[in-house]
Design goal:
This protein has 116 residues and is mainly beta. 7% of the residues lie in helices and 45% in strands. It is built from 1 helix and 9 strands, in the order ββββββαβββ. The strands form 2 sheets. A 5-stranded antiparallel sheet has the order 1-6-7-8-5, with no helix packed on it. A hairpin with a 4-residue loop joins β2 and β3. The radius of gyration is 14 Å and the shape is globular. The chain starts with a strand and ends with a strand.
Length: 116
């Protein structure tokens, strides 16, 4: 199957965000930033198998927005972790792509996320 990228509402906005910070304890990733309203946002990605950050913009699909949160269905990244035995079967895995239009792109492979 081909990867399908869908815009999703995760309960926060990444548009015009600033001050991205990461904390990774080997299991969970916490992402913090200041949103466009100058509110502090903290997101916990549970059972993080991988994450990426880069300043350069890129798209996986024409359906993406440069200032939105996305989920990648049928993700090749997820499939590779499953193929290599890095993801366990009794869990659902998600590939999130957060396009911070002014602060780069963050991608996370995890089992769930929660705003903290």
């Amino acid at each position: 199957m081909i990867e399908v990228v869908e815009i999703v509402d995760l309960g926060f906005s990444v548009a015009d965000a600033e001050g991205i910070k990461f904390k990774f304890d080997g299991v969970d990733l916490v992402l913090e930033f200041t949103d466009w309203r100058e509110q502090h946002i903290s997101i916990k990605f549970e059972n993080t198998l991988g994450f990426k950050f880069q300043n350069a913009e890129y798209e996986l699909s024409e359906t993406e927005r440069f200032d939105s949160c996305h989920i990648v269905h049928d993700s090749d990244w997820v499939k590779e972790h499953i193929r290599q035995g890095e993801a366990w079967n009794d869990e659902s895995w998600y590939h999130y792509k957060l396009n911070f239009n002014t602060a780069g792109i963050v991608e996370v492979l995890c089992s769930r996320l929660a705003k903290t």
